[in-house]
Design goal:
The chain is an alpha+beta fold. About 30% of the residues lie in helices and about 20% in strands. Strands 1-9-8-4-5-6-2-3 form an 8-stranded mixed β-sheet. The protein has a two-stranded antiparallel sheet with strand order 7-10.
């Protein structure tokens, strides 16, 4: 049985598929997903980006909702510095109607999202990244179209109350990258709702 498992992992590795998703230092593949404005968005569209703050999030999860305003502020702060937010809804809308594409459009307008809000319709992208929660953050650096994973985890250390945050993981990581340094903290535990998938 152990040999079969090892062989299976070897085959996955040979196919470029990781059982646990991306790890720090891995190169992330680009994707093309539909935005709430109907356009297809990929990382390659952002020619001048130094990197990306990719956040898997959704409409219904109370953790995701608690972070919406903070995500908007993070995008406003770092987009002009070369690190835009790219939000992706990974949930299957058949399992949660509130996470349908039409409801994503409504939510983006209601909140005034300043960033793309993409639908992972096939659920392939979140699986490739290894996202498990909403919200779940992956910070990527961009070197001539090579996207390296620099941070994975939570936005900060207090989802309940933004005024009580003492560690801003995402901001600290991006600030370090903007200074051509590696983030001191590269991985934290994502706190949120489990991603809704049929399999």
């Amino acid at each position: 049985m152990k040999k079969i498992l090892i062989l299976g992992l070897f085959i996955l590795a040979a196919m470029g598929i990781q059982a646990q998703g991306y790890q720090i230092g891995d190169e992330a593949k680009d994707f093309k997903l539909k935005n709430v404005d109907g356009k297809q968005i990929s990382l390659a569209d952002y020619k001048d980006a130094k990197g990306f703050i990719v956040i898997f999030t959704c409409n219904h999860c109370p953790y995701a909702v608690a972070y919406e305003d903070r995500i908007i502020e993070i995008d406003k702060k770092y987009k002009e510095k070369g690190f835009p937010v790219i939000a992706i809804n990974p949930n299957d809308p058949e399992l949660y109607e509130s996470d349908s594409f039409d409801n994503m459009i409504v939510r983006a307008k209601e909140k005034g999202f300043t960033f793309p809000y993409l639908m992972d319709e096939t659920q392939e992208v979140f699986k490739r990244f290894g996202a498990t929660k909403t919200p779940h953050v992956f910070i990527l650096s961009n070197k001539s179209g090579e996207y390296t994973v620099e941070y994975i985890g939570a936005i900060d250390n207090n989802y309940k109350d933004a005024s009580q945050v003492t560690s801003r993981y995402v901001e600290d990581a991006v600030d370090a990258l903007l200074q051509n340094k590696k983030p001191e903290i590269t991985s934290t535990k994502a706190i949120g709702c489990g991603i809704k998938t049929k399999g």
